[in-house]
Amino acid sequence: MLLMQEVVEEVTELAVIIVMVKAAIMLAATKSLGIIVLLFLLIGTCFRNAQAEEHDATVTTASGSYSVPVEVEDGEVTQVHWPNGGDMNLNGADISDGEAEGTNSRGESVSVALDNYEEPKADDEETKSENEN
Q: How far apart are CA 50 and CA 74, in angstroms?
Protein backbone atom coordinates (compact mmCIF):
# COMPACT_ATOMS: atom_id res chain seq x y z
CA MET A 1 0.00 0.00 0.00
CA LEU A 2 2.88 2.36 0.78
CA LEU A 3 4.43 1.70 -2.64
CA MET A 4 1.14 2.61 -4.35
CA GLN A 5 0.96 5.89 -2.41
CA GLU A 6 4.54 6.71 -3.42
CA VAL A 7 3.64 6.06 -7.08
CA VAL A 8 0.57 8.31 -6.79
CA GLU A 9 2.67 11.08 -5.21
CA GLU A 10 5.29 10.81 -7.98
CA VAL A 11 2.62 10.92 -10.71
CA THR A 12 0.96 13.92 -9.04
CA GLU A 13 4.29 15.74 -8.79
CA LEU A 14 5.04 14.93 -12.43
CA ALA A 15 1.64 16.29 -13.50
CA VAL A 16 2.34 19.56 -11.67
CA ILE A 17 5.73 19.83 -13.36
CA ILE A 18 4.14 19.26 -16.79
CA VAL A 19 1.60 22.02 -16.12
CA MET A 20 4.39 24.34 -15.00
CA VAL A 21 6.43 23.64 -18.15
CA LYS A 22 3.41 24.24 -20.39
CA ALA A 23 2.69 27.53 -18.62
CA ALA A 24 6.34 28.54 -18.94
CA ILE A 25 6.31 27.86 -22.68
CA MET A 26 3.14 29.91 -23.13
CA LEU A 27 4.52 32.78 -21.07
CA ALA A 28 7.87 32.62 -22.83
CA ALA A 29 6.06 33.30 -26.07
CA THR A 30 5.00 36.63 -24.56
CA LYS A 31 8.56 37.27 -23.34
CA SER A 32 7.52 37.78 -19.71
CA LEU A 33 10.44 36.25 -17.84
CA GLY A 34 9.44 37.81 -14.51
CA ILE A 35 5.99 36.23 -14.70
CA ILE A 36 7.51 32.85 -15.55
CA VAL A 37 9.77 32.93 -12.50
CA LEU A 38 6.91 34.04 -10.26
CA LEU A 39 4.65 31.30 -11.61
CA PHE A 40 7.27 28.59 -10.92
CA LEU A 41 7.82 29.86 -7.39
CA LEU A 42 4.11 30.10 -6.55
CA ILE A 43 3.13 26.71 -7.96
CA GLY A 44 6.11 24.98 -6.36
CA THR A 45 5.37 26.52 -2.96
CA CYS A 46 1.67 25.65 -3.15
CA PHE A 47 2.43 22.07 -4.14
CA ARG A 48 4.87 21.52 -1.28
CA ASN A 49 2.50 23.05 1.30
CA ALA A 50 -0.50 21.07 0.09
CA GLN A 51 1.00 17.63 0.62
CA ALA A 52 -0.35 15.59 3.50
CA GLU A 53 1.77 13.61 5.95
CA GLU A 54 0.91 10.01 6.68
CA HIS A 55 1.01 8.72 10.27
CA ASP A 56 0.12 5.47 12.00
CA ALA A 57 -2.82 5.81 14.37
CA THR A 58 -5.47 4.02 16.36
CA VAL A 59 -8.85 5.01 14.94
CA THR A 60 -11.96 4.37 17.02
CA THR A 61 -15.43 4.31 15.48
CA ALA A 62 -18.77 2.92 16.69
CA SER A 63 -17.74 -0.48 15.30
CA GLY A 64 -14.37 -0.73 17.10
CA SER A 65 -10.73 0.39 17.22
CA TYR A 66 -8.30 -0.14 14.37
CA SER A 67 -4.56 0.47 13.81
CA VAL A 68 -4.43 2.18 10.41
CA PRO A 69 -2.56 4.94 8.58
CA VAL A 70 -4.10 8.42 8.53
CA GLU A 71 -3.33 11.64 6.64
CA VAL A 72 -2.54 14.86 8.50
CA GLU A 73 -2.72 18.30 6.87
CA ASP A 74 -2.13 21.56 8.74
CA GLY A 75 -2.59 20.00 12.18
CA GLU A 76 -5.80 18.15 11.28
CA VAL A 77 -6.48 14.47 10.55
CA THR A 78 -8.19 14.58 7.15
CA GLN A 79 -8.41 10.97 6.01
CA VAL A 80 -8.26 7.39 7.29
CA HIS A 81 -6.88 4.63 5.04
CA TRP A 82 -8.57 1.30 5.72
CA PRO A 83 -6.76 -2.02 5.09
CA ASN A 84 -9.37 -3.02 2.47
CA GLY A 85 -8.29 -0.08 0.31
CA GLY A 86 -11.13 2.26 1.25
CA ASP A 87 -10.68 5.76 2.61
CA MET A 88 -12.75 7.74 5.11
CA ASN A 89 -12.71 11.54 5.11
CA LEU A 90 -12.81 13.30 8.47
CA ASN A 91 -14.09 16.77 9.29
CA GLY A 92 -13.05 18.89 12.26
CA ALA A 93 -10.41 16.47 13.55
CA ASP A 94 -7.93 19.04 14.86
CA ILE A 95 -4.95 17.46 16.62
CA SER A 96 -4.18 18.29 20.25
CA ASP A 97 -1.56 16.33 22.20
CA GLY A 98 -1.49 13.63 19.52
CA GLU A 99 -5.24 13.03 19.57
CA ALA A 100 -8.14 14.21 17.45
CA GLU A 101 -11.88 13.78 17.25
CA GLY A 102 -13.98 14.52 14.20
CA THR A 103 -16.90 13.27 12.16
CA ASN A 104 -17.09 11.17 9.02
CA SER A 105 -19.33 11.84 6.01
CA ARG A 106 -22.30 10.24 7.85
CA GLY A 107 -21.87 12.55 10.83
CA GLU A 108 -20.60 9.74 13.07
CA SER A 109 -17.97 10.50 15.71
CA VAL A 110 -14.45 9.21 15.02
CA SER A 111 -11.55 9.37 17.52
CA VAL A 112 -7.92 9.23 16.43
CA ALA A 113 -4.84 8.62 18.60
CA LEU A 114 -1.69 9.24 16.56
CA ASP A 115 1.36 7.05 17.22
CA ASN A 116 4.62 8.98 17.77
CA TYR A 117 3.16 12.26 16.53
CA GLU A 118 5.12 15.43 17.22
CA GLU A 119 3.24 18.71 17.14
CA PRO A 120 4.76 21.15 14.63
CA LYS A 121 6.95 23.73 16.36
CA ALA A 122 6.21 27.42 15.92
CA ASP A 123 8.63 29.43 13.80
CA ASP A 124 11.18 31.49 15.71
CA GLU A 125 9.54 34.70 14.43
CA GLU A 126 6.14 33.69 15.82
CA THR A 127 7.71 32.76 19.15
CA LYS A 128 9.55 36.10 19.36
CA SER A 129 6.41 38.14 18.62
CA GLU A 130 4.41 36.19 21.23
CA ASN A 131 7.12 36.78 23.86
CA GLU A 132 7.11 40.52 23.14
CA ASN A 133 3.38 40.82 23.86
A: 9
